[in-house]
Specification:
The structure holds 2 protein chains of 2 kinds. Chain A contains 11 helices and 20 strands. Chain A is an alpha+beta fold. In chain A, the strands form 4 sheets. In chain A, strands 4, 5, 6, 7, 8, 9 and 10 form a 7-stranded mixed sheet that branches. In chain A, strand 4, helix 1 and strand 5 form a beta-alpha-beta unit. In chain A, helix 1 runs antiparallel to helix 2 and helix 9 packs antiparallel against helix 10. Chain B is of the alpha+beta class. Chain B has 2 domains: about 375 residues, 4-Layer Sandwich (Phosphatase 2c, domain 1), CATH 3.60.40; about 35 residues, no CATH class. Helix content of chain B is about 20%, strand content about 15%. The longest helix of chain B is centred in the middle third of the chain and has 21 residues. The chains are: A alpha+beta, B alpha+beta. At the A-B interface, strand 1, strand 17 and strand 18 of A face loops of B. Chain A: This is VWA domain-containing protein. Chain A: It holds the Pfam family VWA_3. Chain B: Pfam families: PP2C_2. Chain B: This is Serine/threonine-protein phosphatase.
Chain lengths: ~450, ~500
């Protein structure tokens, strides 16, 4: 379905960072794979604006905004008002020609705009109509997010577009359907559109929101203060408008008798991809990377190859990028990275750890110990929580992850960051704890 | 060990032989028809046993014990007249001049009790200096001696050359010239195997040189290289412990303006801790040999030409630093590509060596009763320690820092000091130009001489293979590269029978 003219497709590059030297008998090969997409013109540091296309042009795209309209959105009343304003701001950010729809979500999903199972095409008139329709949004009812996603999927698939994206806002727990229903909806939608998820206030479940974003290859965040919603929605929509290529997959080839231990995204956030492999021919598998604008992400690939003799060299993995086509073939994006294994008796070479691998191993551990520490804290295990969060403080400090360090400091009193000595705070704002949990997977890149 | 040249092989089909075989087990070649080639067993000392065998007189051609005494036609002992021990390598026997014309510091001190031999070894352009010359090898600025500074030595090479030429036929009688010497088996396998992986024999080989089934890297062109150019030959091998060959060589022959022949050999060793060492060594060897082969026919003095060639090689390596690294080279610390260099130019009367780093040149006379010599002084930690008198040679080379080099070609070299030295050997011999992958297994000049086949000057390619085989037998811990340049230079085509 994707039909780009050549100039519109960004250039992808693959860079591999690894220490390829292994001691005798070893077989575990670690590599950090940096995937970068760049178009002509400005190379931005972050995806903030659609600059690969001249104004008014861009890849065909469809966006569905799912706004929580459950009864709790009226407590406080500012929440519903801010959600309306945020949705309006997001609509204003839509590029002309983009297909869009607004879905109001309760225990059922209903089309707010344009209705009739269709998508509107953005222009001045439809934007005005959509914003007028938002005024009719009122709170009342329950929460069944799976139904919202299924409606969004139906609407998004009604248009023949390259990029399909959803924005989901909730303020409460998914109480009016079973977790299995949500899981089934996510499985049905995975790979069909990408979706960012936001929790507003503090009455929602972090793992539900991060789970939605993770399954649909989008971002998750907390907007504790409803007043911040408009800015966040605008930024999210700008990012969505910056996407140029959908459904990119990382294709990993490994030699015979090799085990793929894990594949995970490690920047900008930690995202486990190992279990999302789909086989792609002999000794190769594809891992979904979602849609791409002008951006760069890092992946940690770990494979176990059969050990070979000193002086031998082998290819432990070949990494390429592909876009699956509807007819079952793939479009290869050209870029390729080689992960090598070279056995040496030079102890200095084989024992040194590649700085990128070391850094991201630490960042992945950081995300893990924050999660474990918060879980232990909730279950009342003070000692366990102190140990885990202390380790988190130590890792965040050593790796220069200042944002995470700041969030941690709101949950624990840091005695000594270098040794990870901390005390749990007696009183922690719920918003601070939820922010830490939601953002625990955010990583920083290696200082260059 | 499949990369190894067969060290004890049938001269007809190269089938490995067992000791005591009278016929080749593969082709039935009558092994008694040719004299056994003692040089095929480089790990067995030959000349080293000379004192025990009681070789009659100094200056005599030592008779290898494995050669049948009958019918080999060894010449009578040469008119050396010296009564001293032939094996002693005396520092005063061989001195060279560095680029500034000052003599090199002496080599290893003579073994105690060894009577000094008269000046019988190689000659050099400048009078021998006192043994205790204090200057470091690279102390003088790198200005070559002007051509006019090389006065012919009346007692030198010319008198000896008569003897040399008279000996040549005998040399050939000793040989079983074998035109069918097969190429390296690994290289053959790579060529014949085509696209099938040499490791698993199941997968096809991808465009980037890896098997699409088992992932193993395929033998590369540089894993084993051999070349013969006129009288000069060189062999380079990846060795047994390194995953790629970072050594390179370039050889060639040309003629001076007066029509006399000149041979050129350059050997470079990529610095492993730097980025793209294989590119560096290849660029340096190519640039240096091209510079020499262009300068010598124009009449540039060989020593000046060698100096200029090292500068040219240095520029070639420096320019690599500006090029972007290939996608798969993401070393944690990107160092500028770097390599060592050693080169030799041999003319009808002159032997020039030039070097930067720890690759070496050795002089091995055809007449093994004359002392061999190391012609270069390493730019290495160990050599500096020894030169400064802080450690004995044994101590210094046992240290783990021994091989840290203090001079190299590359953009991050502190200061380029090309060392060159000129010699006027008074007798025929062969110059062994090699990387540390070889001399680690034959460090002293005497050790090197023991592993250089007796017919090295006449059969340089075969002998270079033997030397590489010696390093592989010893463990092949590094890439091995050796070039052999016979002295004096002979016109093209006359070198190998």
């Amino acid at each position: 379905m994707a039909n780009f003219s050549k100039s519109n497709v960004p250039q992808f590059s693959v860079d591999v960072y690894q220490n390829e030297y292994l001691p005798e008998g070893a077989g575990e090969v670690n590599a950090i794979v940096t995937v970068t997409a760049t178009g002509g013109g400005t190379i931005g540091t972050a995806v903030s604006a659609p600059h690969l296309f001249s104004p008014g042009q861009g890849p065909s795209a469809a966006v569905a905004i799912m706004v929580d309209c459950s009864g709790s959105m009226d407590y406080p009343a500012t929440k519903m008002r801010n959600a309306r304003d945020a949705t309006a701001a997001a609509i204003d950010t839509l590029r002309d020609g983009v297909h869009f729809a607004v879905v109001g979500g309760t225990h059922v999903a209903k089309e707010v705009y344009p209705g009739g199972g269709r998508l509107a095409v953005a222009d001045a008139t439809t934007r005005e109509q959509a914003k007028r329709a938002l005024r009719s949004l009122s709170a009342g009812g329950g929460t069944a997010i799976g139904t919202w996603l299924k409606l969004a999927d139906r609407l998004l698939s009604s248009a023949d577009v390259a990029i399909r994206h959803g924005i989901l806002l909730t303020d409460g727990r998914n109480e009016h359907e079973s977790p299995q229903d949500l899981k089934a909806a996510l499985d049905a939608c995975a790979g069909r559109f990408t979706c960012d998820a936001r929790g507003v206030g503090t009455d929602w479940e972090v793992k539900e929101v991060t789970g939605i974003a993770s399954a649909l290859l989008g971002t998750a965040d907390i907007v504790a203060d409803p007043a911040g919603l408009a800015a966040d929605f605008t930024q999210m929509m700008e990012t969505a408008m910056g996407k140029e290529v959908a459904d990119v997959s990382l294709r990993l080839w490994t030699p015979v008798d090799t085990t793929v231990k894990f594949v995970k995204q490690v920047a900008p956030t930690v995202e486990e991809l190992t279990g999302r492999r789909t086989e792609a021919g002999p000794r190769a598998g594809d891992y979904p990377l979602g849609s791409w604008g002008d951006e760069s992400r890092d992946y940690h690939v770990c494979v176990e190859v059969p050990a070979a003799n000193i002086g031998q060299e082998m290819l432990a993995a070949r990494i390429s990028l592909v876009i699956p086509q509807p007819d079952g073939t793939v479009q290869n994006l050209g870029a390729q990275g080689l992960v090598r294994a070279v056995w040496t008796d030079d102890m200095v070479a084989s024992t040194s750890i590649n700085p990128q691998v070391a850094h991201y191993t630490g960042q992945a551990e950081l995300a893990q110990v924050i999660q474990q520490g918060l879980d232990l804290r909730k279950s009342g295990d003070t000692d366990g929580a102190t140990a885990k969060l202390g380790r988190a403080v130590q890792l965040a400090s050593a790796s220069g992850n200042a944002d995470t360090a700041k969030l941690l400091a709101k949950v624990v009193d840091v005695v000594d960051a270098a040794t990870g000595t901390v005390r749990l705070k007696a009183k922690v704002e719920e918003a601070d704890e939820m922010t830490l949990e939601t953002r625990s997977t955010k990583t920083v890149r290696v200082k260059k | 060990m499949s990369q190894m040249p067969q060290l004890s092989a049938c001269p007809s089909c190269e089938e490995p032989l067992e000791s005591g075989d009278r016929f080749c087990g593969a082709c039935g070649y009558d092994l008694s028809a040719v004299p056994e080639r003692p040089e095929d067993n480089p790990t067995i000392t030959m000349n080293g046993s000379v004192p025990a065998q009681g070789v009659p007189a100094a200056g005599a051609y030592p008779e290898p014990p494995t050669v049948p005494p009958a019918g080999t036609g060894w010449p009578a002992p040469g008119p050396n007249g010296a009564g001293g021990s032939p094996a002693a390598h005396l520092p005063t026997d061989l001195q060279g001049a560095d680029s500034g014309g000052s003599p090199l510091p002496p080599d290893t001190p003579p073994p105690p009790g060894a009577p000094p031999a008269p000046a019988a070894g190689v000659r050099f352009d400048h009078p021998p200096q006192a043994a205790g010359h204090p200057g470091p090898p690279g102390g003088a600025e790198g200005h070559p001696v002007p051509p006019g500074g090389y006065a012919p030595q009346p007692d030198g090479y010319s008198a000896q050359s008569v003897t040399y030429q008279a000996q040549q036929p005998d040399e050939y009688l000793l040989q079983a010239p074998d035109p069918r010497v097969s190429a390296d088996p690994a290289a053959q396998a790579a060529g014949a195997g085509g696209k099938v992986c040499v490791a698993c024999r199941a997968g096809r080989v991808d465009d980037d040189g890896y098997c699409e089934n088992c992932g193993h890297a395929q033998p590369r062109e540089r894993d084993h290289m051999e070349q013969e150019s006129g009288p000069v030959a060189a062999v380079s091998d990846r060795g047994l412990r390194h995953h790629r060959n970072e050594d390179a060589f370039a050889i060639g022959s040309t003629a001076l303006p007066d029509g006399s022949p000149a041979s050129v050999a350059i050997v470079c060793d990529g610095v492993s801790s730097a980025t793209r060492p294989d590119d560096a060594s290849m660029a340096a060897s190519k640039a240096a040999s091209e510079a020499l082969l262009a300068a010598l026919p124009r009449g540039t003095h060989p020593q000046q030409a060698m100096h200029d060639a090292i500068i040219a090689a240095s520029r070639a390596v420096n320019s690599l630093a500006a090029e972007p690294a290939t996608a798969r080279e993401h070393a944690p610390h990107q160092n500028a590509p770097a390599c060592t260099i050693v080169g030799a130019v041999v003319t009808s009367g002159l032997l020039i060596v030039g070097w930067v780093g720890d690759s070496r040149a050795y002089w091995v006379p055809v007449d093994r009763s004359a002392p061999p010599a190391r012609l270069t002084e390493d730019d290495s930690w160990a050599a500096q320690m020894v030169a400064a008198g802080l450690m004995s040679e044994a101590e210094a080379y046992a240290d783990e820092r021994a091989h840290a080099i203090t001079g190299w070609l590359g953009a991050d070299a502190y200061e380029l000091e090309p060392h060159t030295a000129a010699f006027k050997p008074d007798r025929p011999g062969v110059v062994v130009v090699c990387t540390d992958g070889l001399w680690n297994y034959a460090e002293a000049a005497e050790e090197m001489a023991r592993v250089v086949p007796l017919d090295a000057a006449a059969h340089p390619l075969h002998s270079a293979r033997v030397l590489v085989g010696h390093a592989l037998d010893g463990g092949g811990h590094d890439n091995v590269t050796v070039a052999l340049v016979p002295f004096p230079a002979v016109p093209q085509g006359a070198g190998s029978a």
